[in-house]
TrEMBL record:
Keyword GTP-binding: no
GO-annotated molecular function: sulfotransferase activity
Cross-referenced PROSITE patterns: WSC
Natural source organism: Pardalotus punctatus
UniProt superkingdom: Eukaryota
Keyword vocabulary terms for this entry: Repeat
SUPFAM superfamilies associated with the record: P-loop containing nucleoside triphosphate hydrolases
Family annotation (Gene3D superfamilies): P-loop containing nucleotide triphosphate hydrolases
Signal peptide: none
Sequence ranges assigned to domain WSC in this UniProt record: 142-234, 245-342
Record gene name: Wscd1
Keyword flag Repeat: yes
Pfam family, one: WSC
InterPro entries per the UniProt record, alphabetical: P-loop_NTPase, Sialate-O-sulfotransferase, Sulfotransferase_dom, WSC_carb-bd
Name under which the protein is recorded: WSCD1 protein
Length: 577
């Protein structure tokens, strides 16, 4: 018996030693693999200079009629982008196969560009929630707490404006955002969502059902699941915002029957713009229309589209007159209130059978196009990436998996053959490369709504950026033209100039039917929250002559490729510079 026990004990000791040895070997192997991968990444990063070389366009492209060929008669071999930068080395003449050679280099540069694209992730940017002004977080709320209410997403009472912030939502932030738009009430839900309106929700809930802590303020309650913590916004602050945020839209011929065109009206002696705007804001209308002593509130419609303005002198008013140009014309102002006829959005109820991409080079206006598409169709757009800052601005599709097919289309900046062929069709958005490069450089250093500083523009990063990204602008279009299955080409400049006609094309391409009033609502909210704020662009010219020569050649290449596929060429304004 003792002998058997001794053998068992010896076996267990050997087994324990063997397990220890295998565990140690496993950990060592994992450590070696990790070190090897880290070394590989460092080596790849050190090759940025060679991958950054400019990709020239063949001189025979000068026959394209988009610019005067004489501007390219004497291209400079090996241009310098800025003082202090090594000369760009052009390849041998026998390697210049134009679009084919340019596209072959695209895969080589893609990893570098992805590192560039994600170098300054949005989480490192100062989070700018749509409509929120920078302010100190405080637990002191100046508004009056009205209680906990039921939140019905299908029949929402506080539907004037909606904001999100997954990291920094506070009661004060929400109140400030609603006050800026002249709303009376601010409601918070899920700890991170803010809703504005002028009417209290009808159904009250138990106080304990509002139990979600604010994401940016410990100890404060920001609603709950389908529950709103509602505050009455401070009146004085709201009044000041109303006066400051009224925007003059123009002088227009008045409709034949104003009472039929506009749902609300007010007759007020000594009527002022502030009086009319405040009246319409309380009624939650985006337009305040003044004709003499009469104030009307409403929306842009087919009968009053705000497309044909006239000379403001026709709308001149004096204190003793009771009408404007004998009642034929009226002054129109935009109130701080948002047009809510096109703000309702949702995910597709069934998976889309057609997988559509919204493809563009970075800085080409993809986010703005998504804003227009979402408000026109009523469906969320998806994204190949996840951008927390965009999610906070209301793009809920950012958090949805890009292959879920629950969104109307998917944003992408990818241009590889595999990534392109995954989509059944695509809207290809193209913008002037000069503007795109500057917009993307601004985004990298100052977020979606800021501007890069003069120091950024004068640093070595700018010529490196142009050297790499200019070729990407060209190869992105070329590869989508080659591998895309069904394309709609949209030029950013055309979309900006003729919004409704171009947006109609995009909506029809997505196989969605929309009303004219909804499109007019989108036009009324065309900018959304995507205008850059802060210090305007620097005064100096950021592009050197060598940069312009390089970019202009890429423009010629893309122009010829578009015409070769029976698409319209690039707008003439792209070159020369």
């Amino acid at each position: 018996m003792a002998k058997a026990f001794f053998r068992l004990q010896k076996f267990l000791r050997r087994t324990q030693f063997l397990l220890f040895f295998l565990t140690a070997a496993y950990l060592m192997a994992g450590s070696l693999l990790l070190l090897q991968r880290t070394r590989l990444v460092i080596q790849q990063g050190s090759r940025g200079t060679s991958a950054n070389q400019a990709l020239p366009v063949p001189e025979e492209m000068t026959r394209v009629g988009i610019i005067d060929p004489r501007t390219l008669q004497n291209p400079r071999p090996g241009p310098r982008l800025l003082v202090g930068m090594d000369a760009l080395q052009e390849p041998a003449l026998d390697q210049r196969h134009s679009p084919h050679w340019l596209m072959s280099r695209n895969s080589e540069l893609r990893q570098l560009r992805r590192r560039w694209f994600h170098r300054f992730p949005s989480d490192q940017e100062p989070m700018q929630t749509a409509g929120f002004k920078a302010m100190k977080q405080t637990t002191e709320h100046k508004g009056t707490y009205m209680g906990c209410f039921t939140d019905d997403s299908r029949e929402r009472t506080l539907k004037g404006a909606v904001f999100y912030d997954l990291r920094k939502m506070t009661v004060a932030h929400c109140q400030e955002a609603c006050a800026e738009r002249a709303y009376t009430y601010a409601g918070l839900a899920y700890g991170a969502e803010c809703y504005c309106g002028n009417t209290l929700p009808a159904a009250a809930s138990k106080p304990e059902e509002c139990n979600s802590e604010c994401k940016g303020e410990k100890g404060s309650v920001c609603g709950g699941v389908n529950r709103l913590s509602v505050y009455r916004v401070e009146e004085l602050r709201a009044g000041a915002r109303r006066r400051r945020n009224v925007i003059y839209r123009g002088c227009f011929r008045a409709p034949e029957n104003l009472t039929d065109t506009f749902p609300a009206s007010l007759l007020q002696p000594n009527l002022t713009v502030e009086m009319c705007s405040e009246f319409c804001s309380k009624k939650e209308f985006p337009l305040a229309v003044i004709r003499g002593q009469e104030c009307y509130c409403g929306y842009p419609t087919g009968h009053f589209s705000l497309h044909d303005s006239t000379d403001r002198l026709r709308c001149s008013r004096t204190p003793n007159t009771s009408s404007t140009a004998e009642g034929k014309y009226c002054l129109v102002y935009q109130t701080p209130v948002q047009d809510t006829r096109c703000t309702d959005r949702k995910f597709l109820t069934t998976k889309s059978k057609v997988f559509v991409a919204l493809s563009s080079f970075p800085g080409a206006g993809n986010t703005w196009a998504r804003h227009l598409i979402e408000h026109a169709t009523g469906y969320y757009t998806g994204s190949y990436y996840f951008d927390g800052a965009l999610y906070n601005k209301g793009f809920k599709g950012e958090k949805d998996h890009w292959r879920s097919r629950r969104t109307i289309c998917v944003k992408t900046h990818e241009s590889g053959k595999t990534e392109i062929e995954m989509f059944d069709s695509a809207i290809l958005l193209i913008r002037n490369p000069y503007k795109s490069l500057m917009a993307e450089f601004n985004r990298k250093y100052a977020g979606h709504l800021g501007y890069a500083t003069d120091r950024n523009w004068k640093s070595k990063e700018w010529p490196d950026f142009v050297n790499s990204y200019a070729s990407w602008w060209a190869s992105h279009v070329l590869e989508w033209l080659k591998y895309g299955k069904r394309l709609l080409i949209v030029h950013y400049e055309d979309l900006k100039q003729s919004l409704i006609p171009k947006l109609k094309e995009m909506v029809e391409f997505l196989n969605v039917t929309v009303t004219e009033d909804r499109l007019l609502c989108v036009e009324n909210n065309r900018d959304g929250n995507f205008k850059r704020s802060g210090a305007k662009q620097k005064n100096f010219e950021p592009f050197t002559q060598e940069m312009k020569d390089l970019i202009n050649r890429y423009i010629l290449t893309v122009d010829e490729a578009l015409r070769g596929r029976n698409f319209s060429g690039l707008p003439r304004e792209y070159v020369p510079r």
